[in-house]
Request: fold
Amino acid sequence: MELKDFYYDLPEELIAQEPISHRDMSRLLVLDKKNGEIEHRNFRDILKYLNEGDCLVVNNTRVMPARLLGVKKGSMGNIEFLLLNRKDKYVWEVMVRPGKRAKTGAKFIFGDGELEGEIIEILEGGNRLVKFKYEGIFEEVLDRLGKVPLPPYIKKELKDRERYQTVYSKHEGSAAAPTAGLHFTEDLLRQISDSGVRLACLTLHVGIGTFRPVKENIVEEHKMHSEYYELTAKSAEIINSAKEKGGRIICTGTTSTRTLESIMQKKGSLREDKGWTDIFIYPGYAFKITDGLITNFHLPESTLLMLVSALAGRDNIMRAYKEAVRERYRFFSFGDAMLII
Reply:
């Protein structure tokens, strides 16, 4: 497959720059993966498409305020850090900008000197290992000084950073939100549960690599980034029970899908597990447990677009995206939703 097979034209004005006023008032495009039929709904209408006995799987990761703005010690040149992975109590893998200021041994200060970081290694690919110096608890320091790292296509500052968190977010560790879940409210989740749909939580910490463009012209040659996941025994039991009784497994977001499919691929069955996954799902992949998917509209030529194409068929997806553009849906992280069933 070629990268160009996943390109579509998107007017820039359709890229949502801020969240809608009420989470569950976004639009919902419903795509039947078997026959390609499309319906246009409101997200609240998702209740009509979830059946008693189904299982809704959500990713309860929480976005860190991982963006730090500071200055270089001595020269006072501005620097931006984006925290990616914690290596130990004091050391993080960090994306830096501008990189020319972040040579080995360079030190940077954040806030009024409340936090200091020293570059201790330059990694392959350009990221840095940074050793931080601070007093107290790092998470509390980060909460005071850090900002939510919004995707590069969002130019507006977010007024309420909780709007870039799902209402069920719990375990902090992501550099980006699992945005398909942003449409749910606590009330809507209660209604879904009351209708007999089981809810199962898992955790996948979304890495900044989710925004990394595919550079290879041949799709199969792309190498995915790794992300950390956890599935508890309780959640595995809920999902397996629903499946055994004939219910559908509806994943909220590509992150939930990748977690379940990774475990099935690795273990041969769904069970308690944790680890790192770099699974790459594109057309031709045989899904092992996922029956349906709630997702947002993804960037052209992205691995996320390839995943939804694997589930619904590339032709169905590209036709649905063309209609979404024509109907002026809002795209990407703060945009509208799609349900594939």
User: Anything to note?
Assistant: The two ends are 24 Å apart (CA to CA). The longest helix spans residues 253-267.
